[in-house]
Amino acid sequence: MHGDPPDRVAPKVADMAARREKLGLPAMTYGLAGYVIVRDSETEAKRELERITNVEPGSPGYANYQDWISHTKLEQQVSLQDYSVSNRGLRAGLVGTAEQVAERIIELEQVGVSLLLLQCSPQLEEMERFAEQVMPLVREGRTAAVA
């Protein structure tokens, strides 16, 4: 699925799971594309978000956005901010501190998402940060939820 928050993902997963169960098909793995920004503070994360989504009228990216939006057949309106990163990944809400991002991942997992297709930039540095800061919190959150 394209990036979306848990409340938009949950009915999609539930609907597909019910359809598969009705047909006697095995369970599926549900994945979600999301753009991740992890920083030490929410202010820093928002500053990075503003930096990467700055496509002002008159810039080269703005003309492409206007052309794309006038020809798209998507189920929902795509904002300029959504357009600036692919797959509407910002809607997943994976922007903030490590704790905030881990909490959102656990929320997504609770509605049936078990695979994340993460985007970030620069990729190596951001994935290292994610692995070091977010993944341990997600593991701890799962353990706490089971206890």
Any overview of this molecule?
With 147 residues, the chain is mainly alpha-helical. The chain has one domain: Luciferase-like domain (TIM Barrel, Alpha-Beta Barrel), CATH 3.20.20.30. It contains six helices and four strands, in the order H-E-E-H-H-H-E-H-E-H. The strands form two sheets. Strands 1-4 form a two-stranded parallel sheet. Strands 2-3 form a two-stranded parallel ribbon. Helix 5 (98-110) packs across helix 6. The two termini are 30 Å apart.
Report low-confidence residues grouped into runs of 5 or more: none
CATH superfamily: Luciferase-like domain
Give the CATH class: Alpha Beta
CATH topology: TIM Barrel
Number of domains: 1
Per CATH, the architecture is Alpha-Beta Barrel
Overall spatial form: flat
- Largest sheet, strands/sense/barrel: 2 strands, parallel
Task: State Rg.
Answer: 17 Å
What is the number of beta strands?
4
- Separate helix tally: 6
Give average pLDDT, whole number: 85
The residue fraction in helices comes out at 55-70%
Question: How is the largest sheet built, in terms of strand order?
Answer: 1-4
SSE pattern: HEEHHHEHEH
Structural class: mainly alpha
- Percent of residues in beta strands: 5-15%
Report, as a whole number of angstroms, the end-to-end distance.
30 Å
